[in-house]
């Protein structure tokens, strides 16, 4: 039984390595797993590989890419207009990068747009430019690659069906393992081909626009608001600080209450004891011939302070 199975594997491998555009019809001998009476059953398991259809009438599959570099007079205004323009079409921003130096500021956008609106988007973006410094549009025809990958994918799927049929008929463990390994290789090739087709379809359906907007000035690009704007911000900040200070003082009302009660109590006590602190501070008697000098003590200073509060 192993010899017929090996022969079938050889035929399938030959079909994998042959021309992807056309594969011969699998014969009964190539799928034989047992004696002659079962050959007719194996021959009908795998589908026949049909020749690739004529693709001369297929619509071309084109990948369109634009690279634009515009000089603008007002960079902030132009940069703010780009998302609005993109939103007017079947498009979206796929990336953005900003670069700033002393004399130049620029933004680079990557835009994906539906191919049918590619030209309209370019026209709308060009209206932002004071000067078109660079403009390039490239178109890549991938129709031939697309058709080739489709043909190879059909061939691999047919081979996959043959391996599945062999796997259903295999009875030996070694034969099952061998067929499964070949089947895994074919399915991996199928997944790669399907991924390539999805990529080509996406690139063909959505075109790519790379847009760079920049502004240059020999006197330098302002990196922030002007003098009067900053002056107005300073007044606003000062007012905020004053309000914050006022709120902070109100928050300390327990302290002000204690200080007020202490002063009130001191004045009441001072009225009830009018002569308690009304005494002349002691001054040292200067020696004869010495210069008159007087330095108040700490006690004298405290007496003067309490006296001023009591008035």
Description:
The chain has 311 residues and is α+β, with helices and mostly antiparallel strands. It has two domains: 58-223, no CATH class; 232-281 and 296-311, no CATH class. Helix content is 52%, strand content 17%. It has nine helices and five strands. It has a five-stranded mixed beta sheet. It is elongated and about 125 Å long.
Poorly predicted runs are 18-52
Order of helices and strands: HHEHEEHEHHEHHH
As a percent range, the share of helical residues equals 40-55%
Mean pLDDT, to the nearest integer, reads 75
- Main sheet characteristics: 5 strands, mixed
Q: Tell me the overall shape.
A: elongated
Give the helix tally. Answer: 9
List key phrases describing it.
single chain, 311 residues, alpha+beta, 2 domains, 5-stranded mixed sheet, 9 helices, 5 strands, 17% strand
What's the short story on this structure?
By secondary structure, the protein is of the alpha+beta class.
Outline the fold blueprint:
Blueprint: H1 2-17, H2 39-43, E1 62-71, H3 75-87, E2 91-100, E3 104-114, H4 118-126, E4 131-141, H5 143-169, H6 173-205, E5 206-216, H7 227-251, H8 253-272, H9 298-310
Parallel strand pairs: 1-5
Antiparallel strand pairs: 1-4, 2-3, 3-5
Helix pairs in contact: 1-5, 5-6, 8-9
């Amino acid at each position: 039984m192993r010899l017929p199975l090996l022969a079938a594997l050889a035929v399938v491998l030959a079909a994998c390595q042959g021309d992807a555009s056309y594969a011969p019809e699998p014969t009964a001998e190539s799928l034989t797993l047992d004696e002659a009476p079962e050959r007719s059953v194996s021959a009908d398991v795998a589908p026949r590989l049909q020749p690739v259809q004529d693709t001369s009438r297929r619509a071309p599959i084109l990948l369109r890419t634009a690279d634009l570099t515009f000089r603008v007079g007002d960079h902030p205004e132009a940069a703010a207009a780009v998302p609005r323009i993109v939103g007017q079409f079947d498009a979206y921003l796929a990336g953005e990068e900003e670069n700033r130096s002393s004399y130049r500021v620029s933004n680079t956008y990557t835009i994906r747009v539906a191919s049918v609106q590619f030209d309209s988007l370019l026209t709308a973006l060009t209206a932002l430019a004071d000067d078109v410094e660079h403009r390039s549009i490239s178109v890549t025809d991938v129709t031939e690659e697309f058709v080739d990958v489709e043909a190879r994918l059909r061939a691999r799927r047919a081979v996959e069906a043959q391996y599945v049929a062999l796997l259903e008929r295999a009875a030996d463990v070694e034969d099952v393992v061998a067929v499964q390994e070949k089947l895994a290789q074919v399915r991996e090739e199928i997944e790669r081909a399907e991924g390539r087709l999805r990529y080509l379809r996406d690139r063909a359906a959505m075109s790519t626009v790379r847009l760079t907007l920049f502004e240059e000035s020999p006197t330098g690009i302002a990196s922030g608001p002007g003098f009067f704007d900053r002056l107005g911000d300073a007044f606003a900040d000062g007012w905020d600080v004053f309000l914050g200070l006022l709120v902070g003082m109100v928050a300390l009302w327990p302290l002000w209450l204690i200080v007020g009660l202490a002063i009130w109590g001191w004045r009441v006590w001072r009225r009830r004891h009018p002569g308690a602190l009304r005494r002349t501070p002691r001054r040292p008697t200067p020696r004869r011939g010495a210069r008159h000098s007087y330095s108040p003590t700490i006690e004298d200073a405290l007496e003067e302070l309490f006296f001023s509060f009591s008035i």
